[in-house]
Structures are given as C-alpha cells and as structure tokens.
Amino acid sequence: MSDTRPIDLRSDTVTQPDAAMRRAMAEAEVGDDVFGDDPSVNRLEALAAERVGKEAAVFVPSGTMANLVAVLSHTQPTDEVLLGEESHVFNYEVAGAARVGGVQLRPLANDRGGGLAEEDVRAAVREPNIHAPRTALLCLENTHNRCGGAVVPLARMEALARIAREAGATVHLDGARIFNAEVASETPAAALAAPADSISFCLSKGLACPVGSVLCGPQDLIERARRERKMLGGGMRQAGVLAAAGIHALAHNIERLAEDHANARTLAEGLGRMGPFAVETPATNIVVLRVLEGTRDGWLAGFAEAGVRAVPFGAGRIRMVTHKDVDAAGIDEALRRIERAAVAVG
Ligand code: TLP
C-alpha cells in the first residue's frame, strides 16, 4: 500500500524528535534553571557559546524571544535599530521590539542575497542630535529566510558590522539557521558570527529539536539578557529536558544539513522543469517558487490536495523547506505529487 501521508514542507520546524533525541531528553539531569541549577541547560549554554565563538549564552524558548531579548539587551527605549526590510525581526516578530523594547525599527533594502548595501547603512547612521534617536544596533540575518535561504558572505557581514561599530552601534546576528550557512559555505559558524557582538540560533529548525534557541554573546550582555528573558516570562525551570535535545543536536544534526541542501536543489530543479513555476537554485534548505500561471493560493490548495504542504511567501510566491523528516525519496514523491497537481490545475 502506498504511503499517502502529507509531505510537510511548510518549514524545517515541523520535524519530530527521533528516538535517540527522545532518549537523551528522558535521561537528562535537571535542576531549577532560574536558580542556575540545571546542569543540562548550563552544559548546552557552554557548548553553544563555544560553538559560535562567544563568551556566554542563554537558552530561550524560541527564535523570536532570542531576537527580542537581544534587542532589549543591546538598546534603550527610543533607540533606533537598523535592519533589513526582508528580515525576520522586521516581518515576523509581531513588532515586539517596538512594543516591548520601545525602539524604532528602521528597515533598509535587502539585496537578493540577504545583505544590505554599505552605503545605505552608512547613510542611515544618525549623527548625535537632541532631536534624533540614537543609532544603537544593526541586526543582520544569516541564512536569510525571505531571501530564499541565502548565505550572506562573511566579507559582506564584516563590512556592514564595521560601519555600525564606527558609528558606536553594536551588531546582532539572527542566525536562526547559522549552521545551514556553515555547512553550505564551509565557513565555521564562529567565523560567520565573529563580526557580530551577539548571535541567536535555533535548535528547533534544521537541528530538529522540539523547542529552543540560544542567544550567545559577551558575558555582560548575556547577564542582561537573562534579566530580559525573565521579564518576558522565558525563565524556565527543569528546562534540561529541552536542553538535552539541543546538546544531542549539536553533536549529531549539523553535518546532515548537507542532505537537506541537496534535497532542496533536487526539489528546485524538479519544480523548475514543470513549467508553471520560476525557481532559483537554493543555497541551503529553502526553496521559493514564483507562480507563473494560475494563482498562488490555487497552487497551494492543489499541492495540499495532492499531499504536499507548503506556505504562501508574499505575492505570487510559495515556500518549501527541506528537513530531516523528508529524505531524498520523500522529495521524489513530493515532485510526483506536484506533477499530478500541475496536470489537474493545468
Ligand atoms: N521562522 C519561521 C516562521 O516564523 C516564518 C519559519 O518557518 O521559517 N529568525 C528567523 C530567520 C526565522 O526564520 C525564524 C522562524 C525565527 C527567527 C523565529 O524563530 P521561532 O519560530 O522559534 O520564534
């Protein structure tokens, strides 16, 4: 009997923890992390900080909270934060930085590769003036979600960070998928994070944990971040059961991201051959297709009917993300199903 379960490519957040990860979680040593007593959380934080070349780290429930805690820790209310107009912080975090942090988010044009133009950042920096907000923080993103999982080159990040630093601002990197960037560019995450003061990365995306992100940076920033996390209600207690999944993932689930990238390329090539879609070759695990015939929502419904789940991604665009739970055979099957949908829609 053929397997008719939907193939879920909505995000790399949909993975299930595998048996080995569940075992690590079940066996985790735990304590009360708000008292600093959870050995598994302490271990994850130390490992994460070391992995991305920073002094210290704090474990938080989500990437959204990691970025918000970062903004709160780098800024004062009334400060201005420079960031890409396509960035996750600007588009998908419910304007939390504005509401909770009282900062002004100032979006700058992203290039197609997820970077910003140096001249735009330079022009956006404000001179000290009694009327003006203080340019306090530059936020970068790597890999870049809305730019199709692009890897922002290290040299570009260094140049942008230098401009921010010369202006007296600090730099935060939303590295939700930094290990995809590491694997795709063969550049260590620590090198990619070096131009930034702080980096957040997600355990719950390609690393396939059920929950969690880590914010890493200098000791004093992370101390402030612990306080901001507590204010947001992110102080967890026996969180070691979750941290154990992260420890397991850092050891076992990074190198395998190369498979997700290969699967994304296969998916993009297959979709491109079908005709009604324009697809660019993905750099990592995010495939964005532009609908050339029919409507985006018509296609999404057709895909769902055929047993492939995807998400809308702006006008005329659909996103599919590869991950641990859909292997190469699953991608071939997804393409067969989409082909059937194309015949039906066509
Ligand atoms: N992104 C999710 C959705 O929110 C769009 C996804 O499915 O891709 N930074 C980046 C670059 C992200 O892509 C995400 C999640 C986050 C931060 C937030 O992480 P969570 O979902 O853990 O709050």
End-to-end gap: 28 Å
Over all CA atoms, what is the radius of gyration? 20 Å
Instruction: Report the order of strands and helices.
Output: EHHEHEHHEHEHEHHEEHHHEEHEEEH
Count of helical regions: 14
Strand content: 15-25%
Portion of residues within helices:
40-55%
> Which small compounds were modeled alongside the protein?
ligand TLP
- Class from secondary-structure proportions: alpha/beta
Q: pLDDT average, as an integer?
A: 97
Shape: globular
Point out poorly predicted stretches.
Answer: none
Question: Main beta sheet, described?
Answer: 7 strands, mixed
Which strand order do you get reading across the main beta sheet?
Answer: 2-8-7-6-5-3-4
Number of strands: 13
Question: What does the model show?
Answer:
The chain is α/β, with parallel strands linked by helices and 346 residues long. Helix content is 43%, strand content 16%. The chain contains 14 helices and 13 strands. A seven-stranded mixed sheet has the order 2-8-7-6-5-3-4, with helices on both faces. Strands 9-10-13-12 form a four-stranded antiparallel sheet, with helices on one face. The structure holds ligand TLP. Ligand TLP binds next to α3 and α4.
Write the layout of secondary structure elements.
Elements: E1 7-8, H1 19-26, H2 39-51, E2 56-60, H3 63-74, E3 80-84, H4 88-92, H5 96-101, E4 104-108, H6 118-124, E5 135-141, H7 154-166, E6 170-174, H8 178-185, H9 189-193, E7 198-202, E8 213-217, H10 219-231, H11 240-252, H12 257-274, E9 277-279, E10 286-291, H13 296-306, E11 308-309, E12 311-312, E13 317-321, H14 328-345
Parallel strand pairs: 1-11, 3-4, 3-5, 5-6, 6-7
Antiparallel strand pairs: 2-8, 7-8, 9-10, 10-13, 12-13
The structure holds ligand TLP.
